[in-house]
Amino acid sequence: MTKVVSSLREAIERAGLKDGMTVSFHHHLRNGDYVLNMVMQEIADLGVGGLTVNASSLFDVHLPLLDHIQSGVVSTLQTDYMAAGLGRAISRGAMANPVQFRTHGGRPADMARGVTPVDVAFIAAPACDCMGNCSGKFGPSACGSLGYAMADARYAKHVVIITDHLVPYPLQGWSIPETEVDSVVTVDSIGDPKGIVSGTTRITRDPVGLVMASYAARVIEHSGLLKDGFSFQTGAGGASLAAASFLKDIMLRDKIRGSFGLGGITGYMVDMLRAGCFEKLMDVQCFDLQAVESLREDPRHQEISAMHYASPVTKSAVVDSLDVVILGATEVDTDFNVNVHTDSNGYIMGGSGGHSDTAAGAKLSMIIAPLFRARLPIVTDRVHCISTPGKDIDVLVTQAGIAVNPKNGELADRLRSAGLPIVDIRALKEKAEGLTGKPAHLPQGQRVVADVISRDGQLLDQIRSVER
Amino acid sequence: MRRSMLFLPGNTPNILINGAYLGADAVILDLEDAVSPDEKDAARILVRNAIRTLDFSRCEVIVRINSLDTDFWQADLDTIVPCRPHWIMLPKTARSEDVQRCDEYLTALEAKLGFAPLTVRLMPLIETALGVENAFAIATAAKRVGALFLGAEDLTADLQCKRTKASREIEYARGRMVVAARAAGVDVYDTPFTDVNDAEGMEADARCAKALGFTGKASISPRHVEIINRVFSPTLAEIDYAYEVLEAIAQGKAQGKGAVSLRGKMIDAPIVARARQTIAAAEALGLGKGEAK
Questions:
Q1: Among A57, A244, A340, B140, fewest CB within 10 Å belongs to which?
Q2: Which positions in chain A touch B221 (Cβ < 8 Å)?
């Protein structure tokens, strides 16, 4: 028996795709992904329309979606993140229906709750056997973890695996088992390796980024959380990686052995594992080749699903056991609300991803952001969009000082005692505005172009059109 | 306490704007080598506005003006001194007369502006063979001189030798500068280490300078600042030992002892002097006994 079908078209036809249905995709191939565009073009050629596309993230490689929106093939987008090129078009009103932004934990939760049923999941797999056992760890398009695709495989009514590396049955070390797969399609290539993972991720050389990273590491050092059993997540940005590098030095110096590193995993987290800073890595997504190799070779490096990572409706998720997370922001307001969906002009250029999931779960949620970018202060009176509510944020680290959420007075006292420059968040805003001036409030459009849905399914905020 | 001095080009606003946050005890806002002749006026205005506008409360401000053999130095001082920088750095200082000429101009400016005399201090940058030979005369040429600064890049060109990481070629100059400065009772700063990617080399170079007696060291890279601060700060062990020395001396005095020993070694006057210097440095850094890291 084999589930391999002759073509993508046959797979779509067998899935029974009809007007108005929902199709889903994962984003592990990131900006190198060929599959979403390939599938949507085939669907368009079949004349199916009015579809909802539920993608865990959308990158600018997916700009052809705009044509499918214009032609009516796609009527609704559900995603956790949207890159700036697509985001700009959406902000200018490219869609009639608002985009539905969820979080990496909220997406599988809403699939499980039946809020966002998926009719057909198209899952790009770097390696797959003829029955659908598949993995991201092997093959020419290896991306490492397939954590975000696991919910699609579990909850979609029909699951199609698309691979460019068909291996003999059974594939060892699968991420998604054949029990969840209906058909398998082979194609020449599922993605461009250069866009899937970066060769290496690098810590910042920017002196301001290094100052912020040094402060971030010292905040963790003096938080009371840095002890044996410590758990940690950080992003792949240069300053976040630099903070991880400084933290590694502190952990090795003080002989602290953490329990696990979580999240999107980079080579720096792998280095920390190998150096003995952690016992395990819990990996929902690999950011670079070193992480892919580690996931393949090192049994201490464990692949996890998005549900396991961050879902608020599972019996437990790893974010609930997390001590510290370092996160970014495009804006932070004086109530510590964080925007990662839009830029300071209101254009969509991101999304929560796991931001608000980890902020809600971690004992210490820290934002690293410079005092200003170009001519715009980062701290504002009110963010354009609340991506993560201020109640879940503990600390904002800038080069000009560290603001601690007033709800966490004990932490502020600890950090102040350690000699760290603790400042009121309003003082940071005033300091930045003293140099840049207070930016005029930009008028927002009338149309709602996106709904921001919290991890527990509530409407958190709405993003309006930009009509300038 | 001034351990590190970080050069910031005077013509680059996005670097100046973050200069105070980079951890240096002092920033050197540079109007000389970092700025091409056709940008001198723009940089002068930018540096003036930076001092007026930015919050430099965390560090001292030093402005490196252009040397006395250019047409720029007086305009530099006319523009910058009204902003009350802590220091003026005078490049290519070779003779006591150079110091006196700059000092006279500064004295007149201070009087004109209604500033107290010696509001702005002077840090001669010694970067020629003649300057090294005249170091003591330079350090004592005016009360305004508070520190000497060795610049090895220009010096080695003047010495007609190659500048190397090992720095054998500047051993004499370093020693001569330290002796001259200490004899004059002023601070003394070592030349920057110019390979910004070599942290180990940087640390070794800073340790060498500290061992010779330098007060601190300049840097052209923010990445070197933390290393310099660490090397030129007293360690926990040094602070604890300094307190032990003073306690042993106090106890000995109370017991009427003429000679006091600690850890099997006699405590003599130089040891006590060094202990007092260490404690003064620790206090300046806000470090008490048992608190250093």
A1: B140
A2: 207
Rounded Cα distance between A319 and A360, Å, is 8
Region A8-56+104-196: CATH code: 3.40.1080.10
Q: Are B21 and A208 in contact (CB < 8 Å)?
A: yes
Q: Which residues in chain A are closer than 8 Å to B55, comparing Cβ atoms? A: 431
Would you say domain A207-442 falls under CATH 3.30.450.20? no
Alpha carbon distance B141, B100 (integer Å): 6
Task: Please state, as a whole number, how many other Cβ atoms lie within 10 Å of the Cβ of residue A19.
Answer: 12
Which residues on adjacent β-strands are paired with residue A100? A78, A451
Q: Are B57 and B76 in the same domain?
A: yes
Q: Are residues B221 and B197 in the same domain?
A: yes
Contact A207 B223 (CB under 8 A): yes
In this complex, is the C-beta atom of B54 within 8 Å of any C-beta atom belonging to chain A? yes
Whether A207-442 and A8-56+104-196 are alike in CATH topology: the answer is yes
Identify the helix (H) or strand (E) that includes residue A184.
strand A183-186
Residue B125 lies in a domain: yes
Cβ contact, residue pair A435, B53, below 8 Å: yes
B122 domain residue, yes or no:
yes
- Please give the helix or strand (H or E) that residue A238 lies within, else none: helix A238-253
Q: Is B148 helix (H, G, I), strand (E, B) or coil?
A: strand
- Cα distance from A250 to chain B (closest Cα, Å)? 11
Q: Are residues B114 and B142 in the same domain?
A: yes
Cβ–Cβ below 8 Å for A211 and B55: no
Distance (Å, whole) CA A402 – CA A396: 6
Would you list the domain boundaries of chain A? 8-56+104-196, 207-442
What gap in Å lies between CA A73 and CA B150, rounded to an integer? 71
Asked whether residue B145 falls in the same domain as residue B280, the answer is: no
CA atoms within 13 Å, Cβ hemisphere of A383: 28
Residue B242 sits in which domain range? Answer: 236-284
Instruction: Answer for the pair B132, B155: CB distance below 8 angstroms, yes or no.
Output: yes
Number of domains in chain B: 2
Residue of A nearest to B221 (CA): A207
pLDDT at B258 over 80: no
Interface check B223 vs A, CB under 8 A = yes
Nearest-by-CA chain B residue for A214: B226
Question: Chain B contact for A321, CB < 8 A?
Answer: no
A431 touches chain B (CB under 8 A): yes
Query: Would you call B223 and A399 a contact, using CB atoms and an 8 Å cutoff?
Result: no
Chain A neighbors of B17, CB-CB under 8 A: 435
Q: Flag whether B290 is in a domain.
A: no
Locus of tokens 């400065």: B181
Co-location of B21 and B111 in the same domain: yes
| Pair (B184, B57) in one structural domain | yes
Structure tokens at B181: 């400065």
B54–A431: do the CB atoms touch at under 8 Å? no
For residue range A40-60, list pLDDT tens digits in order: 999 999 999 999 999 999 999
Nearest to B18 among A205, A208, A434 (CB): A208
Q: How confident is the model at residue B160 (pLDDT cuts 50, 70, 90)?
A: very high
* Choice between A249 and A200, residue whose per-residue pLDDT is larger: A249
Triad B112, B114, B119: Cα angle to 5°: 100
* Of B250, B152, B146, the residue nearest B192 (C-alpha): B152
Enter the pTM of the model. 0.87
Q: Tokens 């082979």, residue?
A: A186
**Contact (CB<8Å) A207/B18:** yes
Interface confidence: ipTM more than 0.95 = no
Please judge whether B55 and A431 are an interchain contact, meaning their C-beta atoms are less than 8 angstroms apart. yes
Are B52 and B174 in a shared domain?
A: yes
For A400, the closest chain B residue by CA position comes to B21
